Structures are given as C-alpha cells and as structure tokens.
Amino acid sequence: MYFIALATDYDGTLAHDGIVARKTLSALKRFKKSGRKLVLVTGRELPDLKRVFSEVSLFDKVVAENGALIYTPASEQERVIAPSPEPKFVARLKKQGVKPLSVGQSIIATWEPHQATVLEVIKKMGLELEIIFNKGAVMILPSGINKATGLAAALQDLRLSPHNVIGVGDAENDHAFLQACGCSVAVDNAIPAVKDTANLVMRGARGKGVEQLIDKMIKHDHAIVSRRHDGIVLGSAGGDEIYLSPTDTVLIAGSSGIGKSTLATALTERFVESKFQFCVFDPEGDYDGLEGAVRLGDGSSAPTKAQVLDLIAKADSNIVVNGLALRVNERPDFFADLLPGLGSFRRRTARPHWLIIDEAHHLLPKRRDDTRAVLSLELPGTILITVHPEAISTDALRLVTAIIALGPKAKDVVKVFCHETGIEAPKAIPTPKGARVLFWRPQAGKKVKTVKVIEPRQSLKRHSRKYAEGQLDEAGSFYFHGPDNAMNLRAHNLMIFAQIAEGIDDKTWEFHLHAGDYSKWFRHQIRDKDLARETAEAEEDKTLSAEESRKRVLDAVRRRYTAPATAPE
C-alpha cells in the first residue's frame, strides 16, 4: 500500500449541491476499512460544513476555511493556523456594500463581482491578504494561507508524507493542494485548468468520480504510481530519462570499488530534493557524513531497534544505520529483528519511502531459513547493494523489479540474477562503456539498456574507523603467513594489523614487504591509494632496515586511521 490517504475537496467534488450521495458515503467507509486515512479539504467554514454534512466523523482530519483551520472529528479539536480577520477590514467591506459577507475564524467570503471592491480596500488599508476564487466565490485569507498549507499541517498531525496522498478536486482553489499531493486527480466536472494539470482525470463527475478513484486505489494502489510524476531519475539512455519508482525493488551490483555506493549517494541526493524519506543500512560505515541524514551507531556502539524506529517516526528525518560495531555474523540477526517493525511502520505510513541496504548479502543472506518471514511479501522502495548477488536470499531477489549492473562484470550480474531466480536471461546484453551501467527490468520483458547515470554532488569519504576498528570479512583481511607458511595470523582491521606487525619477526615482516603485499592490501581492500603509494615507496626502498621500513609503514597507517576519535577525518 503506497497511497495511505485520500484528500478530497467537498463542494463540486465529493458533494453535489452540498449533498454527498449514499453510494459515495459507502465508498468512503470502504476506503477507511482498507486501513487508509481520509482528509477533507474545503473552503467552507466548519459550522456550515457540519450543518450540511452529518458524516464528517468519517474523516481523520478536516481542513476548513480554505486551509486556515484544522479540525479533528474524533476529538472535536479545532486549531486555527492563520490570523483572525481584522475587524476594521470587515467593517470597511460592509460599508462599501459588499454582501453577502461571511466571516469565519480566519476566512472572509463573498461572491463575484465584489472582488474589485475587496482588492481596493486591501490596497487602501495596506493589508497582507490574498483573494482566492472558487467558481464564483471570493475568499479572502492571510497571505500564504491556502488549501496546500492546511493539508500540510493536517498531514503533519497524521505523520504522513504528501507523497503518499492522492488529492482530488474540481475548482481554482484546489490547484495548490492537488499539486502538493503525490498524485493529483480531477473529477469529470472539474474546470479545464484543473484537468490540464492533474495526473489523472476520472470519467465520473463529482461523487461518482470519487467512487471510481476509491475503487482504483483499493484494487490497484501501486499501479497508480507513475515513475514520471513521483519517481527518481537514475540517468538517461538514448535521450530518454530512466526513472526509479518508490514501488520498485532495485538491485545494484558489480565488482568491488566500482562505484555502487557513489551511485547510491547520488540517489539519496535526489531523495532529499524530492522530500522522500530514506533509511540506509550501512554495515561497514561507508556512508558516514552523508548529507541530509542522521547517523545511528559508529565503530564502538551499535544502533538499537528502538533508536531506529523512534527516529524514523519523524517524517523529516533520514537515517544512516551504521553497523560497524556489529560483527559480520551479528548483522543478519540485527536486521531480521528490525525489519518486521520497520515493515509494520511502512504499512501504516508508507515511510521511509526508500530503504538502501548496502552489503545486502550480509543482511539478507541466502543461508538463513527465516528470510521469507522477515521479508513478508514485498520490499517496495528498496535498493539492494552487493558484490555477490548469488549470496542474497533468492526470495529477496525474486522481488527485484529493476537491475543496475556496474563495471566490467556487469553482464555477469544479469546472468547470475537470472540463474538464481529462474528467469530467462535476455538474448542480447550490451557491454557498458565508460561511466555507463546496465539497466534492466526483468519482469517487463524489455531490453537491457546502457544508462549514463547521475553523478553525486558530494564525495563521501570512507569512514576511517571502519578500517581501524571494524571487522573486515575473511576475504578482505590481511594474513601474515611468512615465507614458509609457518603462521596464519589474520588482521581484520588496521589496528590489529599494526599490533601484529609490531610483534612478528623481521623475516616475516620483510617477506610481505618485498612482495608488495602491504601496499596491495591498502589499495584493494582498504581502498586508500595515498596510503598504498606511501607504503609502496617503503617497499621499494632497499636501503631501509626491517625496523625502519616497519616504522615508516605503521606511522603512515596511524597517521591516517588510528588518530583519536576527536581528530578530523
């Protein structure tokens, strides 16, 4: 369920001549039973609305007075979010013969052709007021107050994002709130300007159109989401933009160090721009310093389930869940414990809109028996990032709707995915060149495309304490074994590397030094070219004694990685 709420105008949309038909009321009740929320957005004053609409309690929130007043039917609480009308202004309008004239808690309303008189009085009195039209009605409100601002306040109370709301209306004053919704809909009787800007136009007029929309939302929720009006641009192919939808499950895969986290970083920037909430599961501390996000956990303290769920409840909070303090074998259990609670929250609010799961083969490994239960039935708005797609749970891979393959082994990613899921591999897989990647929608039956992806503005600096204090896997660790394989000492981070290096004999130290093993490890596993370059100079300098070369290499390591936690990184 992606669209959690329906925000509807009253007159001319839900109601005809002020009355809501029985079939429309039944549709509203059916909508509520589906677990969704209803928000009424109207220009009417609240007493007038209650007089004509006795079923107002069906709604979770009412935005009245064209955005100035928020009403909660369950508690009957009223909250005015705009200043009250200026008595002198009202008196002047009456003196100028403006009638009928209705005065609410913030709104003042009359009818055409009095707009000219109203505007003249506003100018003479120097007031910050705006005139809003609604099919002949003339509404005067404080500057900046409209149905969109009122809806935003109501959604904040409900802890919902506008992305997950469908708005439906018919008139001039509906433009603002319709454009603020994730999907805008016009009923058939709507004015042409509203129809032209709406994402969908219903065949039915007024309540009949709302009934059709409700049926569509309940039966085909995800099908309403358009990649073009609520998607994120991945890049371009052949002059066409390629979009990712918040209902997609995306696999980003390729060999190590090829740019997967760089692409993910670029996508998070688009999420921030579009006000999509996101949560990054970062087992190895690669996303520290990510703009627009709060980090939970570090190299010495693991995040907790409660911390994640508490912070994600705030709609404007993006999170990086740093699992660096968790051992590799602890990560799947942590994730398995967290995901059901997060999934329950997403079903209620559709937030966070995007989950980014880095090192997905660690968090959703094939070997776990409970992955199907953990996943539930779907992973919408999820990006799985991995070097080893074959090691990810097959159940998770079968949910993938889009594949992004990077690097020289991009073709292999597509083939491995097809082998693991039992999907027939595409007949022609192009070779991506330069900065391009492969993009394929396996369930759409379309060709594999080469896409020029977006570039991030920020350059993430890999977290130094990940390598200093974290735990690299077996393949990423350094092994001191000496010239005769007499030992097998594993260094799973740089701190352990330094400790072992200080304790081994000169013969073992120099064996790895002269083989260039230290610089190779720093370059390919630690991925620090500067450290590798400085170490290679020590490896190639034959005049250095074992003690001197050891000191130079370890000084270089400590200078970069094992400084106090308060030191700049």
Summarize this structure as a short list of keywords or feature phrases.
single chain; 569 residues; alpha/beta; Rossmann fold; Hypothetical Protein Ta0175, Chain: A, domain 2; 4 domains; eleven-stranded mixed β-sheet; eight-stranded mixed β-sheet; 23 helices
What is the fold's blueprint, element by element?
Elements: E1 5-9, H1 22-33, E2 37-41, H2 46-52, E3 61-64, E4 69-72, E5 77-80, H3 87-95, E6 102-103, E7 108-111, H4 115-125, E8 129-134, E9 137-142, H5 147-158, E10 165-169, H6 175-179, E11 183-186, H7 192-197, E12 200-201, H8 206-219, H9 221-224, H10 227-230, E13 232-237, E14 240-244, E15 249-254, H11 260-274, E16 278-282, E17 294-296, H12 305-312, E18 319-322, H13 331-349, E19 354-357, H14 360-363, H15 371-375, E20 382-386, H16 394-397, E21 402-406, H17 410-421, E22 436-440, E23 449-453, H18 464-469, E24 478-480, E25 489-491, H19 494-503, H20 506-514, H21 517-524, H22 529-540, H23 546-560
Parallel strand pairs: 1-2, 1-10, 2-3, 10-11, 11-12, 15-20, 15-21, 16-18, 16-19, 17-18, 19-20
Antiparallel strand pairs: 3-4, 4-5, 6-7, 7-9, 8-9, 13-14, 13-23, 21-22, 22-23, 24-25
Pfam families: DUF87, Hydrolase_3
GO molecular function: magnesium ion binding; phosphatase activity
InterPro entries: AAA+_ATPase (IPR003593), HAD-like_sf (IPR036412), HAD-SF_hydro_IIB (IPR006379), HAD_sf (IPR023214), HerA_central (IPR002789), P-loop_NTPase (IPR027417)
